Amino acid sequence: MYRARLSLAFAALVALVCIQAAFVYWGTHRVNDYAQHSRLASDILSELLDLSANKQRLRVWATQRLMNANAVPEVRERLLERMHEGAAALAELARRDLALWNELAHREGMSMPQEVPQLVGMTELLEDNIRAVEARLAQLQPLEPGADFPAVWEELNATFDMARGLDLRELINGAIERQRSAVPVARAATERGLDVLRQQAITLVIVTLAVAALLALHLNRRLQRPLDRLLAGTRALQAGALDHRVATGSKDEFDRVAQHFNAMAAELQQHRAHADAARRELEDAVEARTHELSVAHETLQRVDQRRRQLFADLGHELRTPATAIRGEAEIAMRGGDRPAQEYRQTLERIVGGVDQLTKVIHDLLLIARTEADQLVIRPRRLDLQALVTDAAEQAAALGGLHGVTVEPLPPAPGGPLVVNADADRLRQALMIVLDNAVRYSQRGGTVRVGCQPGPDGEAQVLVRDEGIGIEAEELPAVFQRFVRGQRARAHRADGTGIGLSIAQSIVHAHHGRIDIDSQPGVGTVVQITVPSASHPETLSPEETA
Known about the structure:
This protein is an alpha+beta fold. It has helices at residues 2-66, 73-108, 115-139, 149-161, 168-238, 253-333, 340-371, 384-402, 423-439, 486-491, 499-509, and strands at residues 162-163, 166-167, 380-383, 405-408, 418-421, 446-453, 458-464, 513-519, 523-531. The strands form three sheets. A five-stranded mixed beta sheet has the order 4-6-7-9-8, covered by helices on one side.
């Protein structure tokens, strides 16, 4: 019922709006044509005046040229260019004016003035006349003494004013006069069209407003009573009275709304009971989450403690060699002259301290580059067995200082293992592993190193020692920076705990992995796995990480 009335009211308003839009569109289209005609008349007049003025300037230039005065050719070219542009613009305006008059004559039954097509024909004469003037001025030379100036000037004026046997000057002057009289007429027509459009728009707006007001009053009477009932129900719900129900019986759309409202109130009563239960569950969940956050807070405190220990270790590692260097230097400078051998020994100890300090700094820089993804890898094809043998020889020299034997394992059958890798970086990672194996082995122990093909077309490097080993609970943290196990600290007081982290970064940059298996008091096995040269994940020669 109410929906039908509302639809009819909207349909009436839409119809009135469409009628108003149609009248406005028709009127604006008509006024736009008049305004366009007025603009065209004004633009045509402006172009005609410019053409006439530029032609007069060319006459002045020609007079100066004949009299051998200061007639600059650039002035002639500039004026001719302006005349060409003006003639082209005038021709376009004339064609647009002709098309507009054809539309007005067809739509409103008006007769087209004969001056409109004449102007189009005159533009064609203008092009011919400008080309003739351009050609004549290009040949114009200063007159010799005693030359017949009146004859030359008459011939030159004929070139300026005549085109196809017609007096172009009279045509232009006549067109200028006609355009001067056409401009106010076009403006007056535009004003009349605007007045008519304004009156029509005002009339339609008044009619639309009157109809809308009548429809609004009628619909308001039909809408007020059911809305009051619904508002009373919403206020009751807002106050918390979920048992309130809206009266029904009008058998219209509002009656159905009231029924849905009552059903919603019943559901809200059920939801309130469920919400109370959910609130209690949420309180329990918040309590559990609070406990989890407390545990996380304790974890963060432990991380912060590790960070503080990290800075302390860094300060110790950097301060120890620096203090030694300074002490050696102060001892060397204290007292009188000494033998050269003592100074040499002092300098050698200083160089050793600088080397130790440089090594720590290089390790820290390598960690920083790894974190900034600036660890550069320059891969090339290399024999992995040869690299392992070379690293074993270097580690053997270190093992001799600690009473530890380094033995290379026999080459695996099947030919050499070829990989695409950065030899220097991969050797650095292997030497870190070998250095740890030697330093954390007992005197008389043996470190074995070798390489073999992996099960998935990869290449593996194995380093096995008989050292102190690593506790099972400490194995997951061996690659964390500045982390040293309890056995490692008891065996050696020095060390930064960043070697294995650097080795892992280098191996990962080669798309490989490094694994550690260890038993306390038995020994440790480190396995470095990198893709072989034929593996799909191997580094290309151009790839960097």
